[in-house]
Structure to design on (359 residues):
């Protein structure tokens, strides 16, 4: 069942102009400045006078830059664009005891992925993201969201050479994610997003993901908003079962197929908040404000305004940076205009009983 999603109000800016509030955010990744990619390469070049301290400074500068860029768009909650991270599994596997790397694996075309192997029982040593969060939180004027690759994905996108049981591995990893969230909450984090792209390709494992989430949120205070992001897939295979996920928000990638699955989600009561993808992260063409407003209204077929979060479909990192910025800025403008129309009674919202945490 969904957790108490009333915690979204803490992200309403003090200067918010409208009675209605559509929470705006991003999923996580954002295009890296070209010079940061060069810095990542230089630190591995033995002929370059560029060391880890220089790279840390470059990462700090990039995180500061992208956080401020997000704030200029008007987002209610910001992310540092994951400037310090490489690949979403690799980054965490490097920090979790029990993983090792044995070279890149070809995944498609000429693209390679440093797929890790689990060679012993996974365990938690030092915090993975606390320093990252504390830096971003210090430079940001808006609340900071922390994306974390979920345990189901960390288990299934690795070679298992120890457990022989991916479900058991996922549960152990979920316990580690819970430890990390405890540290993040102690540091002041109030918005956590669990990324589970692997569920999109194996949707019949939704019960395993649900059990992982139960472990993840164990002991997490109600005022901490926890969401889960699931990349594009056949959502009919995880809905209405996702109503049982113990999260405040479920983030779905619906824009890139022109909301063909929206009626599936509108059938019945959608229990958690819906974080609706309203811009396509696979197309560099920037949607107009009017187009995005129509996309936002698709979400109102599923949940009332007080349960709707507005975000891109997925991470923006593969787009040109200017396109990513303009899409995000238009997303915020569209959300504010829809709020004004809701305030004025110009948008008819389907009547429904809002689900409670006990539903």
């Amino acid at each position: 069942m969904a957790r108490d999603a009333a915690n979204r109000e803490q992200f309403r800016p003090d200067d918010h102009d409208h009675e209605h509030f559509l929470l705006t955010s991003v999923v996580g990744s954002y295009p890296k400045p070209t010079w940061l990619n060069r810095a990542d390469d230089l630190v591995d070049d033995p002929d370059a006078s560029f060391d880890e301290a220089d790279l840390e400074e470059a990462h700090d500068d990039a995180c500061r830059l992208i956080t401020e860029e997000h704030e200029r768009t008007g987002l209610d909650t910001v992310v540092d664009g994951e400037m310090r991270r490489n690949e979403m599994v690799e980054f965490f596997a490097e920090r979790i005891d029990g993983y090792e790397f044995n070279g890149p694996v070809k995944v498609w075309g000429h693209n390679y992925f440093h797929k890790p192997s689990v060679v012993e029982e996974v365990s938690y040593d030092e915090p993975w993201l606390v320093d990252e969060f504390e830096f971003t939180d210090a430079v940001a004027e808006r609340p900071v969201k922390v994306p974390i690759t979920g345990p189901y994905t960390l288990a299934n996108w690795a070679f298992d050479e120890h457990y022989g049981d991916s479900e058991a591995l996922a549960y152990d990893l979920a316990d580690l994610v819970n430890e990390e969230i405890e540290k993040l909450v102690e540091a002041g984090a109030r918005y956590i997003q669990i990324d589970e792209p692997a569920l999109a390709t194996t949707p019949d494992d939704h019960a395993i993901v649900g059990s992982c989430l139960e472990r993840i949120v164990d002991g997490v205070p109600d005022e901490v908003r926890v969401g889960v992001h699931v990349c594009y897939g056949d959502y009919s295979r995880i809905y209405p079962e996702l109503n049982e996920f113990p999260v405040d928000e479920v983030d779905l990638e619906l824009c890139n197929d022109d909301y063909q699955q929206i009626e599936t989600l509108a059938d019945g009561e959608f229990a958690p908040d819906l974080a609706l993808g309203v811009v396509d992260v696979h197309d560099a063409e920037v949607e107009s404000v009017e187009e995005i407003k129509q996309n936002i209204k698709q979400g109102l077929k599923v949940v009332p305004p007080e349960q709707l979060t507005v975000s891109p479909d997925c991470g923006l990192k593969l787009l040109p940076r200017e396109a990513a910025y303009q899409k995000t800025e238009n997303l915020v403008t569209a959300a504010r205009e829809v709020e004004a129309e809701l305030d004025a009674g110009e948008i008819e919202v389907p009547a429904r009983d809002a689900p409670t945490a006990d539903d």
Observations:
- The longest strand covers residues 116-123.
- The chain has a mean pLDDT of 94.
- Residues 321-343 form the longest helix (23 residues).
